[in-house]
Amino acid sequence: xxxxxxxxxxxxxxxxxxxxxxxxxxxxxxxxxxxxxxxxxxxxxxxxxxxxxxxxxxxxxxxxxxxxxxxxxxxxxxxxxxxxxxxxxxxxxxxxxxxxxxxxxxxxxxxxxxxxxxxxxxxxxxxxxxxxxxxxxxxxxxxxxxxxxxxxxxxxxxxxxxxxxxxxxxxxxxxxxxxxxxxxxxxxxxxxxxxxxxxxxxxxxxxxxxxxxxxxxxxxxxxxxxxxxxxxxxxxxxxxxxxxxxxxxxxxxxxxxxxxxxxxxxxxxxxxxxxxxxxxxxxxxxxxxxxxxxxxxxxxxxxxxxxxxxxxxxxxxxxxxxxxxxxxxxxxxxxxxxxxxxxxxxxxxxxxxxxxxxxxxxxxxxxxxxxxxxxxxxxxxxxxxxxxxxxxxxxxxxx
Length: 399
Ligand code: FEO
Known about the structure:
Structural class: alpha/beta
Bound molecules: MU-OXO-diiron
Number of strands: 23
Strand content: 15-25%
């Protein structure tokens, strides 16, 4: 859908809203759709397009440029090579043959590989370089690993707008140009952070440090609404990337014959009685994005699984693989569950989480349905989690 809207005089949002998309990379759930934002900046002498759109929506970008009667584009600033932002580049370069693609040297190589863009179409820029559009100046800020190695940010000095592409984005289809409903955008931006950015928490810290002294009136990402209160999203990111974990236990689980379910239900109760926040996810039904969001803050994960053919249930394997890939700030992990005749579930799961810098607390994996001594073992695990949270100052004294 067309989404031609004005940020400021001579600066338009010319991208597309994708109300219907529900999956990204055939992996990431997008319950609220998304947008592919592109921005047109018209200076006194030159015109720049900042990012393009997903190839499925090239016609929308073209229509918006036609509505503005754009006959010449001098530069296409490409902050990120991924195709949902670069996919329309070949058509843009066909229609505007004098346009040059402005990007980092790494991005150039990726675009030559991904989109077969000829070498002579590029101007590469280094960290801190500027480009004058006449009365407007673009400054390029290298910001690698948000979330690919080639990513950069573009700062429009005179208007104090930072164009961040994926960084600070949200998968949210909305007709609002600017954030109007902060709780809804917070939820979508946190989901986006959890699914896309969390593995790069350490580099994001460095990138946040790099932009902290920029005067920003507006942060304009290439997914979701634009922030005219930059502190809203900067403060949210500062919280999400901090090393401080919350007094929360995440329990992703599967149960086949109710034994693991009985253990999970009991365990959740005894954790709640100890003042710990619990988020329980039945992996046969859960939206994996919700699990990713819960992992942003939690101190502890307890994985619940039955045994299937000597290992854990495949849905649990999938969730554990994702948790390991997302590298959340978890401090502790354990396993609970039930088996029929044996198996190597504990070794399998603990072997799958090398990226999680967690202390493994003694698992409670039992034979058959849980009995009195098994519930006592779950009491012991709940108490150990509480004590660990206290020792690490995750439970504050006032709690
Ligand atoms: Fe929105 Fe990394 O692409």
